[in-house]
Amino acid sequence: MHAALRMSDSTNESGMVPRKEAMTDLLVRIGANRDRQAYQAMFVYFAPRVKGFLMSKGADSALAEELMQDTMLTVWTKASMYHPGRGSASTWIFTIARNLRIDKLRRESVQHFDDVDGLEIAEDDPNTGRTVVAQDDAVIAGQERRLVAAAMKRLPTDQAEVIRLSFVDDLSQHDIADRLGLPLGTVKSRMRLAYNKLRQALESEL
Amino acid sequence: MTIRHHPDDATLLSYAAGTLPEALAVAVSAHVALCPRCRHGIRTAETVGGALLDSGSAAEIAADALDRAMARIETRAGGVATPEPLPDVADARVPAPLARRLGAGLDDIRWRWIAPGVRSHEITVSPGSGSLMLLKIAPGKSMPDHGHGGTELTMVLDGSYSDETGRYGPGDVADLDESIEHSPMVDSEVDCVCLVALEAPTRFKGRIARLLQPYLRI
Q1: In this complex, is the C-beta atom of A184 within 8 Å of any C-beta atom belonging to chain B?
Q2: Residue B68 and residue A125: Cβ atoms within 8 Å?
Q3: What does the alpha-carbon distance between residue B182 and residue B162 come to, in Å, rounded to a whole number?
Q4: Residue B103: CB partners within 8 Å, gap ≥ 6?
Q5: Of all residues in chain B, what percent carry a pLDDT higher than 90?
Q6: Ranges for the ChrR-like cupin domain (chain B) (predicted)?
Q7: pTM for the whole thing?
Q8: Considering only residues 186 to 205 of chain A, which have any Cβ-Cβ distance to chain B shorter than 8 Å?
Q9: Is B73's Cβ below 8 Å from some Cβ in A?
Q10: Residue A176, number of CB atoms within 10 A of its CB
């Protein structure tokens, strides 16, 4: 609902180049109306970022390009399942790229990575007789982006480092411990501290 | 079902980052399928990925990338995606992510005898992604004292057990690292069925390896 209210400022005067904050609105438009112009605008913003993100994790340019194309196709096909109460467009697209990349890496396993969205949808299924009340409907996507970015800037260097090694360099906790020459327990406790600061930032201000 | 024990925050963060070895990720997803609190926790951690995607470096994309994308959405592949169907496993004890891998209920899978009162069922994961198995332990039986090579996640599917860290029932997860020694004992009237995910079974050495050998077949 928040997205619908802000729909009017989702593009600038020219009507073509969207502002960063408008991405969530564009995504809602794609989901609701199969809006090709909105999709094109999202592609222009996200495609180079998704490719860059995948390359930072070690994919070569050709593989990153393929995964980027698959990610963006999934943005189109799954846009109607996106719900702004569940996070920003950037976060949602991050999870799509992450899932596709993991599925690619699990070559010998036909199993897909189980995404929280998928698990939630499964639980919403009427056949299971259960319903889920979304706890985070209050999260306003645009505000979330700013709060997370600010919280990450405030992290002490050692905590920011383990976050970066996890999300950008794609290292497991064990690999991080090896890389930094630290006990596994120290890596875990830095991750916990960083996570708690992030959670506090999101919960106190939203 | 009241869930009392959850995965560590560091585990949820790694799950969100996509860096949890497959075996551990399956155990987390099995728990998360039942646990709204941890779903919320993972969503919170995923915002980090969104922020890093926004602030990260943009790579040069192919000159025809946009044309290709616009053409692809007009093909059959560009249709509206539907949620993955629920697995056809009618066993309420088995959460959906696990049911997809088992393909059958707990009473219909093959159990391998490994010790008196202890049986196991191995679940295939990609090579080098840890090891994953179900353990079925009879009432009153305990597992031997053991440490852990890396992280070990145990999720109870049926029955319950207790150890020095508390009592674990259906949905509960014990998230332990190598620093913890414990000796769980089954305290339910029915067999305790657990999903056990180990990060690095090949790292077990010496005494620990000998104790765990029957369970892990290493």
Answers
A1: yes
A2: no
A3: 10
A4: B87, B89
A5: 61
A6: 106-198
A7: 0.86
A8: 187-189, 191-192, 194-196, 198-199, 202
A9: yes
A10: 24
Q: Highest-confidence range of B47-61, B75-89, B145-159, by mean pLDDT?
A: B47-61
Q: How far apart are CA A86 and CA A120, in angstroms?
A: 11
A162 burial via Cβ count (<10 Å: 0-12, 13-18, 19+):
buried
Residues of chain A with C-beta less than 8 angstroms from the C-beta of B29 = 114, 119
Give the pLDDT score at A125: 42
Helix, strand, coil percentages, rounded to 5, for chain B: 35, 20, 45
Beta-carbon separation of B125 and A191 below 8 A: no
For residue B181, what are the contacts with CB-CB under 8 A and spacing of at least 6?
Answer: B145, B146, B147
Residue type at B73 in one-letter notation: I
Measured between CA atoms, the residue of chain A closest to residue B48 is A148
Domain boundaries, chain B: 1-218
Q: Does B84 touch chain A (CB under 8 A)?
A: yes
Using CA atoms, how far apart are residues B154 and B7, in angstroms rounded to an integer?
10
ipTM above 0.85, yes or no: yes
- What separation in angstroms does the CA of A171 have from each of A71, A179, B21, B46? 21, 9, 10, 16
If one counts every other C-beta atom within 10 angstroms of the C-beta of residue A83, the result is: 17
Instruction: Select from A77, A170, A194 the Cβ nearest to the Cβ of B79.
Output: A77
CA separation for the pair A121, A152 (Å, rounded): 30
Mean residue pLDDT of chain A comes to 80
pLDDT reading at A176 higher than 90: yes
Per-residue model confidence as pLDDT tens digits over A132-149: 333 333 346 667 778 888
